Design the sequence.
């Protein structure tokens, strides 16, 4: 089924202990849509500048991602420069140039209006709500946010949260949003704000899924080498929502599988800089890694 | 089957965001043996001072723990004072008084010599090796250590490691011991030092089991309240070794179950200060929580 994502497209300059890359295609909407495109057709709503060329566009169109909602604006594309040190658990932002993203006002093309699965990437919660309201037929709406909005636009974020089904968020952000340092209490409080499904991303430690009366823990897959964690969270969200949109099944069992598919895609993403690994996949590799997660987590009673 | 533990018995003074406790019975050998006593008969080798009274001894004897190896020495029992702040992931040591523990020279009673399952708690690796050599009939020997010995007695620790089957250690210690910041590479390097079975404790994030050609991830159970993390690692080891000694089964499937039993016992331990929760258990509660871990980790392919 149709999956729509709203978010950023950026050029990232990244340094990690394993190397560096300059001005490579990135951004939340990019990672999300490329990851999700392995599961289901994806529609993207984002803004890019005049420096966004045909070769960048082809990254989307080669994956059959619908770019009718990719707006071109006068000026330069969003740029981010960051660095990861040591165990690479945290990105240190060195430079952010919002450029055309600063005035981003998401426009939903007519052809996108009937989208059933929606991911509201990490943008101003006022814009997220605006998008949400233009998609009345959505069956499942998921949202990402960050500490910047949790602190700076708290009441707007609460208004938006009240209209969504799923929140996909980092552990630290879930705790900040709820004011609880205990994860189970934080999850309970966040679910009362609106989203009946809460996915807590824990980086290399995996992810938790909180639903009514149930908790699921997806493990982190120990990898031989993590080259670049950039985009892992959005890639996770892409695998998660992609699987749900593909199957149309919102049962607890399938939500759990979706968390694993999210983990599978994120585990690929971090193995190379940028989108590299996500563009060279196939359904067999994805199925094999899903089985690796199953072997990793399995024990008999 | 018989399970022997060598380690510390201490009086702990603990402050956490949830309260405090003064001079309560603790120490690695205490937590380990109480946890393991729910699975199998336990024998303890440790030293206590003149201030160790009958009511302290009864904690062991009420759990049918064999205290023939509990030496009484002139002086005071080992004392530790520590504090946990914020998310309680790390203990801040405020005071350590080794007292009688400073001269601890573990003596293995004749009746303990045929012990088949052995846990060498976190003490000087020279002493650990000395104990190891007195237990030639051991079928499975596990060892704990810490950064103090990894840095200060590296070559002694390597000599001891070469003689054991299992290393149970924290994630940071595994990385320090191996010199690798990547967990999978660290595990590979540590297993080459001797222990064919490596258990990496990750606190609230769970635990990993590394064996030949296999990795297992046990989830951390999100708890409503963590009162006091003291002794969680030794309690984990007690559940892990207790289950193995009880079943005598060293298959991969049973090693994974043992990691879950370790996690089960640790999850109880942290719910109250000191040994409180570990002393009020029964086999039904343990089985119920094992099932909770199963529900937490389960997903269908």
Sequence:
């Amino acid at each position: 089924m149709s999956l729509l994502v709203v978010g950023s497209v950026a050029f990232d300059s990244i340094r990690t202990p394993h190397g560096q890359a300059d001005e490579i295609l990135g951004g939340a909407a990019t990672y999300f849509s490329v990851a999700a495109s392995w599961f289901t057709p994806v529609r993207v709503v984002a803004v890019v500048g005049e420096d966004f060329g045909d070769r960048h566009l082809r990254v989307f169109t080669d994956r059959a991602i619908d770019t009718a909602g990719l707006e071109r604006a006068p000026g330069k594309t969003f740029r981010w420069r960051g660095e990861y040190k040591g165990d690479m658990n945290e990105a240190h932002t060195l430079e952010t140039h919002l450029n055309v993203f600063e005035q981003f006002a998401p426009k939903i093309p007519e052809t996108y209006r009937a989208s059933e699965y929606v991911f509201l990437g990490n943008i101003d919660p006022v814009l997220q709500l605006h998008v949400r309201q233009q998609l009345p037929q959505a069956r499942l709406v998921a949202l990402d946010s960050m500490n910047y909005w949790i602190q700076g636009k708290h009441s707007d974020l609460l208004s938006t949260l009240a209209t969504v089904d799923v929140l996909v968020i980092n552990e630290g952000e879930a705790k900040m949003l709820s004011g609880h340092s205990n994860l189970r209490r934080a999850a309970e409080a966040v679910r009362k704000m609106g989203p009946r499904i809460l996915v807590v991303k824990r980086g290399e430690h995996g992810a938790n899924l909180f639903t009514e009366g149930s908790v699921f823990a997806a493990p982190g897959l120990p990898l031989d080498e993590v080259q670049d964690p950039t985009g892992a969270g959005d890639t996770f969200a892409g695998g998660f929502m992609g699987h749900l949109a593909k199957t149309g099944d919102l049962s607890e069992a399938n939500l759990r599988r979706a968390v694993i598919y999210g983990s599978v895609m994120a585990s690929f993403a971090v193995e190379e800089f940028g989108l590299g690994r996500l563009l060279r996949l196939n359904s067999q590799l994805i199925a094999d890694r899903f089985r690796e997660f199953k072997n990793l987590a399995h024990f008999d009673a």
Remarks:
- The longest helix of chain B spans residues 252-269.
- Chain B touches chain A at residues 86-87, 181-185, 187, 202, 204-206, 208, 214-226, 253, 256-257, 259-260, 290-291, 294-301 (CB under 8 Å).
- The radius of gyration of chain B is 18 Å.
- Chain B has a mean pLDDT of 96.
